[in-house]
């Protein structure tokens, strides 16, 4: 029987390029208040500086993972593992190329409350 080491291996997250995303998928991803909060906080943070657990959202770990999966599927977020943490960046330039002005509008509306 193989011995297990103390390390765990997670599958690398799958990412969808914004060029492959429909407008319906993009709008659906941005329609949820938790996902808007995640996007807004990423927009205000340096790239790769925010781990998944650093966001102030009222959901548990499983729900947070789901929200990040939706954002990855819509081409909004890219994630990578750095040691035990999964860090994030907003794919602003790529998303803006696909949907010019949409992200700026959503971020402005989120600030207006």
UniProtKB/TrEMBL annotation:
InterPro entries: ArsR-like_HTH, HTH_ArsR_DNA-bd_dom, WH-like_DNA-bd_sf, WH_DNA-bd_sf
UniProt superkingdom: Bacteria
CDD domains, per database record: HTH_ARSR (cd00090)
Region (Disordered): 1-20
Protein name: Helix-turn-helix domain-containing protein
Gene3D superfamilies found in the cross-reference section: Winged helix-like DNA-binding domain superfamily/Winged helix DNA-binding domain
Stretches assigned to the HTH arsR-type domain: 15-113
